[in-house]
Amino acid sequence: MRLKITYPLVIAGILVLFVLSTCKNPLDGFQLLFKEPIEKAKLEIRFSSTTGKLPDNVRLIIAGKDADKIVTNLNTRNFKITKEGLIFLAVNPDIIPSAQAPVTFTVVAEAEGFTKLIKEFTFTGTGNQYYSPRFFSINTPPAGVSVNQFTLSTTTQGSLTKPSTLKTESASKQENAWVMIQEGTVFLNSLKQPIAGEMDFVMHHFDNRSGGAYLPEGGLARNPFDLNNASLPDAFNFSTLASFAFLEISSKQQEVARAFTKPMTINLELNPNTVNPETKSLIKAGDTIPLISYSPYTGIWKIEGSSTIIKNANTGKLECQAQIAYPAYWINGWPRWLCKQGPAFTIKSNFKDVDLLYYCVLVNTKTGNTIASYYINLNNNAVFRLGNLPKEMEETRLKLYNYNHIYGGDRTKSIDESVNFNICESKNFSLDVTSLLVPPGIELEFDITCPKGKKLDEASIPSQMKTQFSEPGKNQWINMPTITRNATTAKTYLLRIGQKYDLRASTDGGVNWPYKQNNYLIDKKKWAFEILGDELGYCK
Question: What is the distance between the alpha carbons of residues 523 and 504, in angstroms, rounded to a whole number?
Fold first, then answer.
C-alpha cells in the first residue's frame, strides 16, 4: 500500500512529537510527506568533490530517450541533490524494464568552475545501480591532477570544422597531456550515429606522483580483455604506473560520444624518475610501456598494445604517444598479474548477526611483512575469501585481531592465525575465534503508541526506517540496522553504553533525515523511537 500523508509545516511543528527516549527531537524543517520509497530499478548517486566541498548551484539534468520515465525514489520529478551530495533516482514503478524493453537515460551535473559530469544508464531489469562521481575543480585540482574543459564546434552533420589541439596545462604540475583532433572528425553516440552541434570536451591528466589515487576501479582490472576482445585468464593491477588521462565528450544536448571516426593522437608526459620494472632502471627514450584502456560505460579493461617513449624536442620532456578511437581512461603502466581467487576461510565463533567488522592482516611468512589488511565479518560460519593478489607472492599467513572498525581494540596480539598457505591455492581453511567474547549490543525499537480506545493501523506506517549515527559534531554518518514495518526491533553492536552520539532516522529511504538527536547519551541497552502515532494518522 502506498500512503501519502501531508501536514502543513506549522501544524506539524505543533502536533508532531517524535522522541528519541525522553529527549526533544526537532523536525529540522522537514515537510512530512510520507510515501513508500521505490526500492526496485533504483539508481543511488553520491556526488563528491575533490575540493572536499560540493560546488554551489549544481545544475542537475535528466536527459536521454527515456528521461520521462525517471522519477525520484519518492515517485516525484523534484530532482534535487541533498547537501550531502545524495540523490535517488528510479524507473517509474508503473514501468518494468527488461532486456526487450530497456530504460535508457542520461544524468548530467554541471557547476561553474568544475568539469562536466555525464553518464548514461540502462536498466534491463529491477536490480539497483550505484554511481559515485567526483567534481574536479578546473582552477584548483588535487595534487597530481590537471583538468580542463573545451567547446568544439561541429557542422549539422556532426563533422568537426577545424583541427584542434587541447591541453590540460597546469602551472603547478610537472607533467600534463594533450590531444590532437583531426578536421572532419565525427563523434558517434552509442548507436554509432553522428552527434551534431557544439561539443563539451572534458580532459583529465593524472601523474604517477599522487594522481594514481584516481585510477578507475581502484586500478584493479578484474576481468580484462586483449586487443582482440578475448577475455584474459588473470586479473591485474599496476606494478608501476607512468601516466594516464581520461577523456569524456558530449554535446550541449547531452548526447554522449562513445567513439569518433578519425583517430585522435594523445600525448602523455611522463615523470622522468619512473622506474621501468622490466629494466630496473629509470625510463628513457626508446623504452616501451603497455597501453591500457578502461571504459566507464562498458566496465571493460583492455590491453591495447604498447607505447614507445620519446623525448619531446621542444620541451625536453619524456612522453608517450598513442592513437585512440574512443573516449576512455588511457593508461601507460605495467600490469602486475593477480590470482583471481585464493583460499577461503570459514569463521568459527559465538557471534550471530554482529554488525562489527574485525581487523586481520595477510603477512609474508618468511619476512613477517604485511602484504594486505582487511576488516572482516566474524559471525559464525561467515566465509572470507582472498583474491586478486599478486601471483608471485611467497607463502603467506592470515592473522586476526580483537580490533573492530568502530571503536578499535588490540592490534598488537593476534587472537588466531591461519596455517601457512599459497595465495593462489583454492583451499578452504578455518579461523577459530570462539574465545572472543560477544560484545554488548543495543536494541533499536520502533515504538508507536496509540491512545486508549484506538489501535495501531499497521498498513499506514512507513515500510522502513533507516537509522544512522555519528560521533558528536563530526557529521560522518554510519548506517545502523533498518527497522521495518514487519520487524520493529533490531539489534546493533555499533553503539556502546556510556558513549554519546549524534543519531538520526529517515522514513523515505535516506533522502531526508528529519528525526535527529545530537550528543545523545546511550545509557541503557535500548534506544527507542517513541512516536505518538495518533498525531501522524497511524492509529484507528
Answer: 17
Q: What is the CA radius of gyration of the chain?
A: 27
Confidence tier at 509 by pLDDT (50, 70, 90) = confident
Quote the CA–CA distance of 296 and 119 in Å, as a whole number: 9
The whole-angstrom separation of Cα 95 and Cα 147 is: 39
C-alpha cell at 190: 552509442
Alpha-carbon dihedral sign for residues 265, 266, 272, 275: negative
- Between CA 125 and CA 100 the distance in angstroms is 10
Strand (E) or helix (H) holding 11: helix 9-15
Distance separating alpha carbons of residues 239 and 224, to the nearest angstrom: 16
Query: For residue 146, what is the enclosing H or E element?
Result: strand 145-152
pTM, full prediction: 0.87
Contact in structure between 71 and 92 (CB atoms under 8 Å): yes
Tell me the C-alpha distance between 133 and 152, whole Å.
24
Can you give 132-149 as a three-state secondary structure string?
A: CCEECECCCCCCCEEEEE
pLDDT value at position 35?
Answer: 62
**C-alpha 450, offset from chain centre:** 42
Contact 165, 201 (CB under 8 A): no
Q: Are 21 and 527 in contact (CB under 8 A)?
A: yes
Give the SS3 label for residue 535.
helix
Per residue in 268-278, pLDDT (tens digit) is 999 999 999 99
